[in-house]
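Appendix B: complex inputs.
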Amino acid sequence: MRKSVNRVWRRVMANKLISEMGLPKSIANIFAARNIHTAKDALSLTEFELMELLDVGLAEVTTAVSSISEISCPPYQTALSLLEQRMHNEHLAGHLPTRLKGLDAALCGGIPFGVITELVGPAGIGKTQFCLKLSLLASLPSSHGGLDGHVVYVDTESKFSSRRMIEIGVNSFPEIFQIEGMAQQMAGRILVLQPTTPTEFSECLQKIKDSLLQHHVKLLVIDSMAALVSGDGQGQCRQHPLGWHMTFIKSLAEFSRIPVVVTNQVRSHSGDDPFHYSFQDSRQNLDFPTTFDSHLVAALGIPWAHAVSIRLVLESKSGQRFIKVAKSSMSPPVAFTFAISASGISLLHDDGIEMTGPEINAICGQVLKHFNVASSINDAHNIKYFRDFEVTVVYSIKNWSFRVVCG
Amino acid sequence: MEVSSLPISASHRAKLISAGYISISSLSSISPAHLARDLGISENEATGILKVASQRGGPERTIPSHHSIVDGLRAQTAWDMLHEEESCRRITTSCADLDDILGGGISCKEVTEIGGVPGIGKTQLGIQLAINVQIPLEYGGLAGKAVYIDTEGSFMVERVQQVAEACIKDMQEYDSFLRKDLPARQVNLQANDFLANIYYFRICSYTEQIAVINYLEKFISEHKDIKVVIVDSITFHFRQDFDDMALRTRLLGGMALKLMKLAKKFTLAVILLNQVTTKYSGGSFQLTLALGDSWSHACTNRIILYWNGNGRYAHIDKSPSIRSASAPYAVTGRGIRNLASNCKRVKLILRARLAHDEHICRSLI
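Resulting structure:
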């Protein structure tokens, strides 16, 4: 707890008051007289501007700026001490295992703490399923490999299904869920927020930040990010519409050291999407979109793509679903085949396929040729996660098993 | 030389000019008491002004000749600089093709900007360089330490461990492959030794970013063996929520100058990782590095990492001494490596070793 409080305190280094920095009285008074109160005010001006404003010589300004900088600079640590700190204080050195062996191996243990992990893919591919499973894993007691904590699930598209989550729980961890009252306890740890407007979404985020520390929140899921944002900051737009949220969520993840999982939608590639630099002769190079049989790109644009630390692309191709580690500073580019079953997501092979080319980033949106719905479809809940496919069958079939052919 | 160019406070400057002291030579033979009376300031302040003036006006007082002017302004002849440039060490990137187009590796003493789309491998290259700077001298490295300034949280310690372990394995392979006839030499390094030599700063706002760059001068004078400073990325805190673009340009310009000064003063490599954005040019949207046109002039060297066909390529976009070229590279479990086969790896170490030997020979001449 103390560590998190220290981090919160450190957050406001930029707002540290000059009057409290122990500078010589004379120069401290001059700063105050000119309305420069915080480190941010002082460091936002160049040394010459400060000279003009404060009416002092260069040498004095340089000394003052260098003292202010030294005091406002965050403390350093060696990479070794960082590693030791994480191994000592955090679960599995700062990872939430997904129970998908191959993926966990690629991610050095699981979804990392302190950074944003993004799941991007076409509708119906399994992003929400993945999120439900992760929510469950975070709420499990540590004796069963969980984080033993609360989960905040921000559901912007009303996709959260607690029935489905319990089903995943019962099928994946039968020994826990068969115990009396465990299902209730686990489900009780997952707090679902459903904002319906962008304003409500912003308020949600603020409230989450305030209550993160008190309620032992161990995972934050935002499903999905793109739903309440218009446009994706493309082309000339300088101020990204998502700008504030991006930095806010990133700093939330950083100071609370919890995993943050965000889902993102896809949109069709438009003619305006740039793929080349000015020095690349576009006649020479292969035209990126037409090489791969997809015309989909991740929504929210390039600045968002830079802000996330791990990007997992989910796609389907030739009737097979893939989960690809498209961006990760600690994994080589690998892809795994997966399937959705009663116990959530499972990998078909734990050995990934290494993809060295740009196809690791491509998002293929071929609709699945057909899939078997062998288990009984009793209620509308189960239909919900197949709704995005072009299903030309009446929904209200009860207790029948049938094949749905689509696409 | 004009009084208006002296680094003194504005009011002192105004007083000097209104009292008739326009050029520095007019201050050369005046006493502090006299100046204090003329300007209406205290004798201490007058002494301060005269001190600054004498530091600046030095060369003019001596007999003008080429060498003394050169000495007073701390300039060097191009011939001296040539010797320096040639003996300057370079940090290998572990990819032979990339090292080739860079003239041996990343140059120490200059600021190099590396930009690319998300996921292309910028952080990977940063981590690889933070490890490679520590390679011991006997293997052709610099035996230095690294400063890693992380503004985005992309520094993953597990990955640094992987890259360090791979580097040690490479050194062991080099030993066993090329020194077969010599008695076996143990590489006494562990991955943790590499980790202990990377100084990590986590920056959360642009104020902290400016503060740390200001503080680096003092920090590096206290830790003399730092040979590389990596900022990952320089863009993040300057991209969002910056309403005043003119302020941004000024701050970035100030940072670039300070970093160049650091690189030159301490003979280290400064590497700035940058993001991409889109710009409209020639009738279509194109990719370009972020932070605008004025920033693009700030760095000495600029390398763009991009996707081309089936592989990752690095393109030298701007450099005063190396010609523009592209080379392929790969991001593997072991770090940045050649796109081609593994046998080139040992060739790379051999090349570095030969360069090291050549350097020793040259310094003996």
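Confidence is low (pLDDT under 50) at residues 1-10, 231-239, 283-293, 368-407 of chain A.
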